[in-house]
Amino acid sequence: MRSSLLGGGTDAFTMRTHQLLSQLAVAAADRPPRLRFAPSPTGYLHLGGLRTALYNWLLAKKLGGTFVLRLEDTDKARNFQGSEQDIEESLEWAGLTPDEGPRRGGIYGPYRQSERIAKYQETAGELVARGAAYPCFCSPRRLQLLRHEAHRRGETPRYDNRCRFLSVAEARSRRDMGAPFAVRLRLMEDDADGFVDAVHGPTRHDVSAVEGDPVILRTDGSPTYHLASVVDDAAMAISHVLRGSEWLASTSKHLQIYRVLGVAPPVFAHLPLLCNPDGSKLSKRQGAVTVQDYRLSGTPPGALLELLTLSGAGFHVGPTVGRILDEMVSDFDLSRIVTNAASLDLARLPDLCKTHTARQIIDDRTRQSMVHEVQDMVHQKFGLQPDEALVDRVLQLRKGHIERLRDLVADDVSYIWCPVEINTTELQRSSPHFAVICLEAQR
User: What region holds the Glutamyl/glutaminyl-tRNA synthetase class Ib catalytic domain (predicted)?
Assistant: First the structure.
């Protein structure tokens, strides 16, 4: 069972912890910084995935390294048409452009796991040859019965490791007869030295005591996450792996594969899961959960990114409203990421949108492009072509009041662009901003 040992413990484990911490520092210093975001294209990119991409991108840029996009698309049944394009476009929209990936290429490609199947099969064969893995001939029916029996006894289902005791000759005979088989990793017993997670600290999980030997290659020849992620991270020289905390307990298995392959593992950092303020899982009932929802609504990407950084911490400077990517890079601190589930308060997004939109308006470089964007919006909705000076003036006056540029072409503010009869008496009763905008628009 995993335990985070941040203090106390036996002298032996304390000494081992110090050794691992030293190894962690050496591992980070001895290789070029290369970080990856490796989503599965099974749907539109969600907010948790965007935060994982953001933190990998931030650390890569802070260390002067490389940010890699890799698609884990080996599960053909779950792959979603259009997902790959959505992931790439969402990263571009957010300003997290990969340095390497399916679209940009790179020396470590291909960057789709479906194009690397032969390498996984080759590695699985190497592990079997070294005795670190073995073929499993158990039928789906037998595995289902094991699960049912475990549930009947109120136990956690686990594989009973039956096929690990087959002789080499017997396994070869079954293969020669054409029996279908998967490949399982032979978990090392009493291998609970632990490892140092950059977020959770010294951690250990005796997987052999609580789990059966896991499948690393399915009967159809496709790899599971445990094998493919290790093979790819090693082949692509990944130095740091930042991923969700749901993979923390599996890291011990991954470290065993690294050890057998004779490859130095990367630095691991497991990020807290995102949840609603009440602790429940993110869902559409509480608000939009895919990046596409926010892209299509005109949300400023900086506002959404800042909201994500407020969920899980990770910065040596306290919350600063309006922080942009360059500032996030300089302030990012991996050691300050929290270990508990991170609450995502979507109610804060409107104010963040106003702040980021206002910051863009203040900047002369970004305001010019905003002027042209608003001109296009007005032309598309009202068939009018306002001059740049008017649009610029409107932006200046509405700074701090609008969340998105499209707020300027809402039906209830059409008076800004469309000719209207002005009632002087009513105008005098209106707000100063309203009066100025109306007068500007009628000139």
Answer: 34-316
